[in-house]
Amino acid sequence: QVQLQESGPGLVNPSQTLSLTCTVSGGSITTNRYFWSWIRQPPAKGLEWIGYIAYSGRTYYSPSLKSRTSISRDTSKNQFTLQLSSVTPEDTAVYYCARYSDYVPKTFDYWGQGTQVTVSS
Fold first, then answer.
1. Model confidence over 7-45: pLDDT tens digits?
2. Is the distance from CB of 23 to CB of 5 less than 8 angstroms?
């Protein structure tokens, strides 16, 4: 059973960098055909995909957030990390890490429980 757990500060000052880590257990983040994503949900809005780091280490980001986003990984700890720079109150959201499987039915099959991040001074 794969488990994902987000961790990081719940409050970030405007203009600073938001940093969250997802710790994965029950499976390796280097296993072929899995993509490790960050997704967020602002208050009263739908889910927004932020980006992923693939099993190969390749990254891909949402065009709308690309200029502020960086996703990296530590394979020795089986963790991957989101950094979102120059945050504003519009970045306030519940942030999720999730695994996307490229095996049929090609879906996000495991999710973390989510962590609330508030951007405020």
1. 999 999 999 999 999 999 999 999 999 999 999 999 999
2. yes
